[in-house]
Amino acid sequence: MGTEDAHDDHEHHLPAVEDWPRGFGEASWWPFVTAAGAAGVYVAAALYILGRGDTSLVSPLAGPAALVASIGLFLVGLYGWVYHAFVSTFWSREANPDSANKLRWGMLAFLGSELATFGALFGYYFYIRAGNWESIFVGIPDLTGSLVIANTTLLILSSVTLHFAHTAIRKDDRRKFLSWLVVTVLLGAVFIAGQIYEYYEFIIHEGFTLTSGFFASAFFGLTGLHGLHVSLGAVLLGVVLVRALAGQYSAERHVSVSTASMYWHFVDVVWIFLVVVLYVGAEVGV
Amino acid sequence: MQVNGQLALTVLMGLFLVAVAAWVARVENWRSYTPVAGGGGYGQEDSYVSNEKPSGVIRWLTTVDHKDIGLLYGAYALTAFVVGGLMVVVMRLELINPGQTLISNTFYNSLLTSHGITMLFLFGTPIIAAFANYLVPLLIDAEDMAFPRINAIAFWLLPPAALLIWAGFFPIGDIIPAQTAWTMYTPLSVGEGLGNQGNAGVDLFLLGLHLSGVATTMGAINFIATIFTERGDKVSWANLDIFSWTVLTQSGLILFAFPLLGSALVMLLFDRNFGTTFFAGEGGAMLWQHLFWFFGHPEVYVLVLPPMGIVSYVLPRFAGRRLFGFKFVVYSTLAIGVLSFGVWAHHMFATGMDPRLRASFMAVSLAIAIPSAVKTFNWITTMWNGRVRLTTPMLFCIGFVSNFIIGGVTGVFLASIPVDLVLHDTYYVVGHFHYVVMGAIAFAGFAGLYYWYPLYTGRMYQKTLGKMHFWLSMIGTNITFFAMILLGYGGMPRRYANYLPQFATLHRLATLGALILLVGQIIFVWNFVQSWLEAPKIKDGDPWDLKDSGLYTAEWDWFDRKLQTAIADGGEEADVVPDGGEEADVVPDGGQEPESDADE
Questions:
Q1: Among A181, B190, B266, B296, which residue's CB has the most CB atoms within a 10 Å radius?
Q2: What is the number of structural domains in chain B?
Q3: For residues A158 and A179, what is the distance between their CA atoms, to the nearest angstrom?
Q4: Is residue B2 included in any domain, yes or no?
Q5: pTM of the predicted protein model
Q6: Residue B222 belongs to a domain with what CATH number?
Q7: Of B247, B279, B310, which marks where a domain is finished?
Q8: How far is A176 from chain B (nearest CA, A)?
Q9: Paired strand residues for B537
Q10: Burial class (CB in 10 A: 0-12, 13-18, 19+), B313
């Protein structure tokens, strides 16, 4: 299986066995580095705003440059963090049900906060939908085409395949686990590509853009926020897939499979709600 | 004029930062391995893990120890408290005279905005996080927070957030500070029209606010996971202490309130920069108010619940008896948590919203007074016939109850639509909420800072100075904010830098009160810093003689063990009761109804 040899921390292929700073136990640079990267993203946004217009304070390139650097730093921090917290000692540390429990609670609480994140945008949409809708819903391209139906089917299907993968690893069936996981990630990627294609159609061919008025704000706000979430979900599943390909996970050790699944299912449920109220709901009764 | 004010503030800030740096340099010996306080590797069991921490500044940058992070939060919050306090001192000085004297009206608006945001987001929430980080793991017998590293990153996002929020005050090109008030009402904050709110300073301010919200939400997720999963074997839901209950409820509120504000802020930023129309249309201003107050009112309880927890925790220690009606204090906390999401539109009674909606929000707003009153009566009853010891933390607790009654009762009047229509946007509102945020929340913060001073410094503060601090704060608070309530009755509108001459006397009174407060806080800082540096070390693990009244608690037991690490013992465990009103080993997993707490 290629997993037993990972027991040995002195195995050559492990990039680093000691956390940073070395030898100080719990102390770690990773939160600080990651925080610097994350804060850098905000500074980059600030620089971008300062670089706009005729009387810009900084070069228009400062923002994008800072953004790339910050995301790089953020990813480095996240890599070091996740690697040392979860990956490097994956087989040698104890499979602790308490630790699994707290990670699940953490994900659950995070999903609760996500409800509120989406809530503001749905609130805006309901607010205009309940208002003078006839005058707002003008010049909007056809929303409920075959693309949305295909995309929705793909995303629901990906939730099912992910569930199969999860069940497989619980039964220690690695072959099935891996194949269903690959299918899930592929379906997710196709969904994202479909969303990009939809944006392309709307923006380039239909002339329906972010600045096209009240409905456009709701449409691009909600689908954009959801698209970011699917992308993050795909990254999480990608990380799980890479770790699975490297031989990790077993029936006793699959916490990150279940937390990533919780996130993916959540994003799927939000999408179904979004299709019903935003795509279908906008056109019903007009 | 504006330049003068800004210059004065910059100089003040500079002096202050130098003082902080000097203090930190004295407190922390950069080259030593000896921790300032709370160090050591408490509860670490992994054999390969070294118990030492890196030395000097690296220790603080790399720490994931909840006690260290608590101290970082505390230092950050107190710094913000000083900044926000100095801002309002400048404003109060301007208000001595009806006309424009010291600073320009626009600079006054900037200070007004930043004072509010600083006190609520950069002082209020972090000082609570300081207490919660330091104490909750000790009180629930956890090794650390559920996610120590997320704990660290949640803190380290805050300093850049503060810099972005204050960016307009720094001399960067033509950036000016936001003047939107802390409510950031649209269309003003969208930057349209002839005003100067299109300035990028507002964008930076919004970005900083969003970042601080992300940090706060991460902290809340961490507290929820910690309290649900990290409780020790003896700590059940039945005997969970009151402070942890309030932190848990607060975290639940943060979870649904802050991300919603975050989305609303991003929508506002898109309106300002990318031509979206979230808040531009007819009704956009109302929508912003709905979204903002859907966050904003729970935020009030985010700020007040843990301080209520501190008072519920500390006050019984000096009343010589258990908290009266413990269960009802918990229930009222949960009730406030639930109701707090159903009251937001009472901030909007005067907007011309649908009268039927208005009436329902009035009903819920009046209803939320009930659990608040339940708590108040429980505090009073706890002291009734108790053996009250008027130590500084106890004085602050009693001051809290007193000020909270005034702040709360004035709030009940505001919850009533007809009264609110008269008093809306007057100084009455300002007086009301300052009685709560300064008179109650900050007082509870001081009570906690004094009560646990030996715990986190290993030393005792100077008692006379502590009492002077209390009395100056109590008198200053009541002069300042009672004058504001009277100003409101007289019809003085909020947020104005200039006013009619008829209000001059009361405004001067309020300024006098603010200066008394300032003197009190200078004494506090002096006492806090000097005692930390020079007071003799505490040798007793029970500095408040809690064992005499059977009110000894887990955090002091931890402190005692820390003091005696040289001597291997563990026999004290049995004396410790979690604060949940019942001896830990008597309650079989919540199956047995705990009897009344305070009937002895």
A1: A181
A2: 2
A3: 12
A4: no
A5: 0.89
A6: 1.20.210.10
A7: B310
A8: 32
A9: B459
A10: buried
